[in-house]
Amino acid sequence: MFTTLARSRWVAGLAIAGFLSISPAALAQSPELAPIPAPDSIQPGEPILQNTTPFTLVIPVVGTRMLNVVNPGDATLVLRLTATITNAWYDACAPYDDNAIGLIYNTTRRPVAEQTSRNCDIALVYASKPVVDSLIPQFADDWDAMIAALHVDEHDPAEQMAMSIGTAAGQAVMNARLQDGMNQLGDENGAIYNRQPYADYTNYRPFNRATRLRDPRRWQPAIVTAGNGLFSVQSFVTPQMEITDPFLTAHPNLRAPRPGRSFAVAPNGNPRRRYIDQADEVIDASANLTLEQKMAAEVFEDKINSLGLSIAVASFQQQLTLQEFLEVDFLVNAAAFDTAIVIWKEKRRFDAVRPFSAIELLYENTQLTAWGGPGQGTVHDITGAEWRSYLNVANHPEYPSATASFCAAHAEAAKLYLGARNSPLNPTGNTLDWSITKLTGSSFVEPNSPPHDVTLTYQTWDDLRDECGLTRFWGGVHFADSIPAGQDIGRVVGAAGYHFLLPYFNGTATP
User: Which pTM was predicted?
Assistant: First the structure.
């Protein structure tokens, strides 16, 4: 069914994908839709985290349907959905905690007798529905079935209250995002008819054409194909992200350093030595790709089943309560979203060239030693015009690395939250001890690869952050300098997000 599974030592052989079964067999294909459980299979009141509705119901159902609509590589759209739905979860369950205060929706704290896992489960599922109704309306029947699976007792006042609180929280959070600058409704340019949701209204135009690199410093849209004879030219995905409202706190003064090597071009347009050197680094990495590097690149290409899965596994390992999971899950998703705002601003400011454009410019008819494409391994006669990155090139300018920044924000926020619990299981917050296995034949790039199961292990959040960033260089979609530039921004935003939300978590914020 799905080919990427995660395993954890703590889970002792339990297939986490049984709870989080949202991995597509290939990013180019839509995953099979997870079935909606029958109402009598949802057991009320289970205290164990992985038996709560985020894992048994909402994540499998929503996750697979989201991946039928949005490719995991379209980071801004994925992050907006995950941050919005986890915000709704947190706000819906805050009234059922002794301390928590909702960020957008705040209501009277429920009596102790009502502060149960069952009531929180009901609230967060009902909070999910206004979000997914708005963001993925084509699955409306499935959202109704997801609600029905809860089998809420119409004669239980506490369960009816949880239903009302969840619906109100989800609607409040979604209302707050409708006009957040992402142009979800397609009306930012004043359109009345035939609106185009998420269309650019900032008038971004690429300087280079897909067929002509006029300026070797600037981004060139790639020509992409699925191998079916149809070709299309990339456009910058949601350039308006840079002026979108943050979930937590804005960072108007945060900047990346100038990408000096990408801009090392003489007045006559000829690349200087530094420009050539960074392209050569990418070619050398391509020639020396290991199986583990390829599989790691594929894992972190899909943010849902890498970053999303890592925080779930950490929550199981460290025995978080449902409330604690909802807090840290919202935190890391919102931190990544807010990081994307800064990164998109910098991507637009520098509008920097991708490796594939530079390599073709420098070595168009020169034979190189590099990865030769799916199933070809390293070859010695590929020209710069034929060279391709291992991963598909993203549809936005190169610098700074978005993926590296998201992983850094995610890791930094998780470390701070988990470390503050003073748990003997993770006294510093940095312990992760997470393994994810790419099963035999599960590669979405190369046929019949990997030839055997490949298990990648990350002992700490720092390990995950660092390797996640490097995979973008190994995968050929970023120059080396883009990685630390993205990580530096992500660390700052991740830490700021934690400190912003902490008063809401501990009940000292002013609603």
Answer: 0.92
